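Two folds, back to back.
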Amino acid sequence: MSTLRIRRLPRPADYQPVWQAMQDFTESRGPDTPDEVWVVEHAPVYTLGQAGRPEHVLNPGGIPVVRCNRGGQVTYHGPGQVVLYTLVDLRRRHVFVKEFVALLEDVVLDLLETYGVSACRKAGAPGIYVPPQALLEPAGPDLAKIAALGIKVRNGCAYHGVALNVAMDLRPFLGINPCGYEGLRTVDMAACGVAADPAVVGDRLAEGFQRAWEHIQAEA
C-alpha cells in the first residue's frame, strides 16, 4: 500500500496560491502526516529564491516576479513545464538535504533516460543538464539546463521541488540569468527530439519519485 499521495493540480495554476498551500500543509502536518507530491504546470511566472539577487531578472516583460522561500536564484515557470512539489518528512526517514537533492536529480535522470535523452549533473550547480550532442540544434560546447530544483526545509520537512522542461515556450528564460548564471542556455525535452505530453511526463515523474522515496522508507 502506498504511503505517499500523488495530487495532480489543475493546469495552469497560479504560483502564489500553490506556494501558500505548500506552506500551510507543511506548518499543519504532524509526525504521522502522510507525505505528498503535487504535480502542476504553472501560469507564466518568475520566482526568485530566498537569497536570489534581483539583478538576475533582466527583462520580465510583464511576467510577474515572485520572491519565494526556496533555495536557489531565479527561474521561470510556465505551461509545458512539469513541476513536482515534494512535501515530505526528511527527518522521519533520516534523509539529509544533500541526499534528498541527489534523489530528486536521480529521478529526473532516470526519467529522461527512458525517453532516450542523455543528461547529467553539473558540479556545483544543482539541476539536470544535457550536452550539446543531445540537442537537435546545438549551440556551442556548453551544457544546457533542462531541469531546475530548489527546496525549503521547515522542521525537518521539505517542500518546493523540481521543474522539468517538457515542451514549452523557452523565450521567457531570455529575460533572466537562469538560476543566476549569465548566458546559461535553457532547453526542453522537445529540443532533444522528444515529443511528449507534459501531463504524461508529470505522471511518470511523480511515479518515479514515489518509487524512489518508498524505497528509502523500506530501508529506514
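---
second:
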Amino acid sequence: VSAPFFKGASLLIAADCTAYAYGAFHRDFIKNRVVLIGCPKLDEGDYREKLTEIIKNNEIKSVTIVRMEVPCCGGLEKAARAALMDSGKFIPWQVVTIGVDGRVIE
C-alpha cells in the first residue's frame, strides 16, 4: 500500500473484464494512471480496506473507477467509494460504466 508508484498517482480502479469489453481501454483509461484491477465476483475478500490504506497513505491525485454494467461490478464501485470516504480525503473521482455491448454508458 506504500509502493513508490502511488506517490502523486492518478488511480484507475477497474474491473478486469472492462479491458476486454472496451476496445480503446488502454488509450482512454490506462495512460498516465496507476492501475488496480479486480473482480468482486471471482476474487476473495473485500477491496475496501486495502484501497482505503492506499488512498490514505499516499498523495493520490484522482480516482477513476471503470466497471461493467453488470450487478457484480457494483461491489467494486461500492468498495472504491467507501475507501474514498474512509480515507478522510477529498479527491476528485469518477465512475465510468461500460455496457455489455462495449460502449461507455456513463
